[in-house]
Write a structure and sequence with these properties.
With 88 residues, this protein is an alpha+beta fold. It is 35% helix and 34% strand. It has a single domain, classed as 2-Layer Sandwich (Fusion Protein Consisting Of Minor Coat Protein, Glycine Rich Linker, Tola, And A His Tag, Chain: A, Domain 2), CATH 3.30.1150. A 4-stranded antiparallel beta sheet has the order 3-2-1-4. This is TolA protein.
Length: 88
Amino acid sequence: MGEIYKQLIQQHILTDSSFRGKECRVNLQLIPAGDGAIAGAVKVIEGDSRLCNATKSAISQVRSFPLSEFPEVNAQLKNINLTYKPQL
């Protein structure tokens, strides 16, 4: 599921050539909503500050993050750490 979430972020992020080779690690807390989940809280763990700001902004633009059909997986997805590296 993490790769799917990274792809959703990639669709909304404003890319900049200065992000090349950089990364941002965030903690994402998801709240179930309908068939998916929405971002509740996003906290930067570490990374380039400009990229992390862009990542947080992109996460807020994702309308819905998909959930698994397995409840035990969804329980783990409520609080996850993602490392985002732009594909430039």
